[in-house]
Task: structure prediction
Amino acid sequence: MTGESEIIERYFRQGFADRRGVRTGIGDDGAVLRAPVGANEIVVSCDTLVDGVHFPKQDGGRHAADLGYRCLAVNLSDLAAMGAEPLWFTLALTLPSVDEDWLEAFSSGLRECAVEANIALVGGDTCRGPLACTIQVIGSVPPGQALLRSGAAVGDAIYVSGDLGAAAAWIQGLESAEPALGLAGLEARFWRPAAQLALGKGLRTLASAAIDISDGLIRDLARLLRASRLGARLRLEDLPLCETLRKFADREQTIKMAACAGDDYQLCFTIADDKQQELERLASELDIRLTRIGLTTTGENIDIFYHDRPVSLEHTGFDHFAG
Amino acid sequence: MTGESEIIERYFRQGFADRRGVRTGIGDDGAVLRAPVGANEIVVSCDTLVDGVHFPKQDGGRHAADLGYRCLAVNLSDLAAMGAEPLWFTLALTLPSVDEDWLEAFSSGLRECAVEANIALVGGDTCRGPLACTIQVIGSVPPGQALLRSGAAVGDAIYVSGDLGAAAAWIQGLESAEPALGLAGLEARFWRPAAQLALGKGLRTLASAAIDISDGLIRDLARLLRASRLGARLRLEDLPLCETLRKFADREQTIKMAACAGDDYQLCFTIADDKQQELERLASELDIRLTRIGLTTTGENIDIFYHDRPVSLEHTGFDHFAG
Result:
């Protein structure tokens, strides 16, 4: 195998979801696309994943397929948090060398995620350098229905989807000295996060604000609150904890990990009191666990309680450049 | 300075071109955008630039502003080659460390290019890792008017814009043992390529096919011809050569560099005989040099002549993974 175009032809041309509206896909200077009729607002987002930073340093490609899946899934999570429907994505892949087995596996995982979410690969760039993958996703929302971080009102209930801490548990298990912690079941929670696209779509007309939890609940909730110029009261005992995580760590560690660790890609959102019945219907329709964990308040602080006792959590979470 | 959001706030929030249609820009999970009325086809493209691969290894940030400019300019060149008007872009920036001087310079160069092209920065991602920059651009074209690689017909004239070889001359001068070759004037040609946006727009209804020259004229023309299932006859003596390059190298080297070296970001396009008068008008209106260098033919080969004598050029150009 020789060139860039062969890599594209062999691994990235086919088997990704087809979408209407792709006039010209991969293979020209740019893709020519037409948004669905009526959905005249588009949503774009991009994320880079770097070897050894966003995922454990690749060792011989054991997780290449997982990595392909994850690179797209974390971007889809941003579309979910906006209430957007996935349409198209581009892939910028930087590779240290051409490893056909790795490319085969990576593209198969990427393809799997793309087909599940019905999003079409429409372009990209491949070059040589330290392993990294930047994906840009484009989605659509009905006019005015995008879920923003800035829409929360005082007294809105704060919810999270699913449970928290699974991805962090796997990462920390990895990094700990004990190898056999029974974390195998958590591996997929890290590598193949399920972007909450159906939930995001369902929340368009229900939630007042939303964000996805990539860097930890507290940190991401703080971002939502900052955008809405609000504070919050949280009840830690209500956090939906990953069951495996509870076996692996003590209660304090477990709660701290659920509150502060990242990579869960669940949604955190706010909703007015009078819409909570509709929310329950949505949750049961989608068979998704939704947990009320607190309330928005005036002010700028997140006041955290554990069984009515105020507690202090370091608002760590993940920041690439935190001092 | 501590975190990611501060980097965004300080260096990337303001001063980039404003565009109508940006409902929600930087600072949410995604940007919410509305394409201009009537321009219901959008064009997307992305390119990654990696330190030491796409530009000389950064030494103390002497070229940080240039790099910011170049990262966007090479992407705009893809929009130009599609005949698209720039609308919005996202930036994924991977940095080894937080160097405020570097960020200040990089963002100023990026901003300069964005303002010139009237394209708005709407989102992005910043993380730690080996220096690399992926930009995704989104533009619009009137329905059906995108310039594709695949539209050329037999007997169309082949043109290139501007002159060729300047960027390569600077790169090669850099790499050669002779430091004082008078290449200062060429530096900007490498670092600040002028995306041919006005030309691309003007060619929408004139050219039958177009591509931008990033990896060398011969290699990029071959891509256009492959997409159009055609061959070509080229006259090397007609190539528009960079004047400084002619002083720096002998005639054979000069022509070879103009034909095979990359980074010029001029447009190469094909046009039917009966539209060449209109093309001349466009060239004089835009004050752009357009040079006819050959003709499309049936078959699959590019036959290259120098004063009617067939010559063989290795079709080198740049491929990241060529063996």
Remarks:
- Residues 96 and 129 of chain B are 5 Å apart (CA to CA).
- The longest helix of chain B spans residues 64-82.
- The radius of gyration of chain B is 20 Å.
- The longest strand of chain B covers residues 85-95.
